[in-house]
Fold this sequence. Notes:
- The protein is α+β, with helices and mostly antiparallel strands.
- It contains four helices and seven strands, in the order H-H-H-E-E-H-E-E-E-E-E.
- It has helices at about 1-20, 25-40, 45-50, 75-85, and strands at about 50-60, 70-75, 90-95, 100-105, 105-115, 120-135, 140-150.
- Strands 1, 2, 3, 4, 5, 6 and 7 form a seven-stranded mixed β-sheet that branches.
- A hairpin with a 7-residue loop joins strand 1 (about 50-60) and strand 2.
- The longest helix is centred in the first third of the chain and has 20 residues, at about 1-20.
- About 15% of the residues are buried.
Amino acid sequence: MQKSIVFIIVLVCSLSFNAQDNSPENEVKQVIETFFEGLHKGDSTLMASTLHKDIKIQTTSSMSGPNGLLQTDSRVKLLTAIANKNPEHVYLEKLLSYTIKIDGNIASVWTPYEFYFNNNFSHCGANSFQLFKNETNWKIIYLVDMRRRDKCNVGKVKK
């Protein structure tokens, strides 16, 4: 009898964990994690798997002066840069937290981060991702990131 009760408890817990793993929030988070896995590995094919064919990519920065800068890039330019990354260069974008909002087939993800180049702190900022879900998969349709060197709380991860 005790074995049966233990088995039922284990079964219920495992079903509960599996149900949580398939939540829309976890699906969206997995897309973002795969995007950054591709960045860190220099794997443009892996990154491309997360991007919609019509993605819009922008970067803003306060590192170029008080008025900032807004730069627009293409999917091809991003993927080419990753494919041509010097294998000796180490990129690490440490995400500090995730804020995920979903309504139907659109999602918004906010991820403050710290960026390290060859293990040295480079800058901090935040990413804003917009995702769209077609019949089966979430894809990133818009990405804008902010880069700055001031007001960075380096090493204070808030996950």
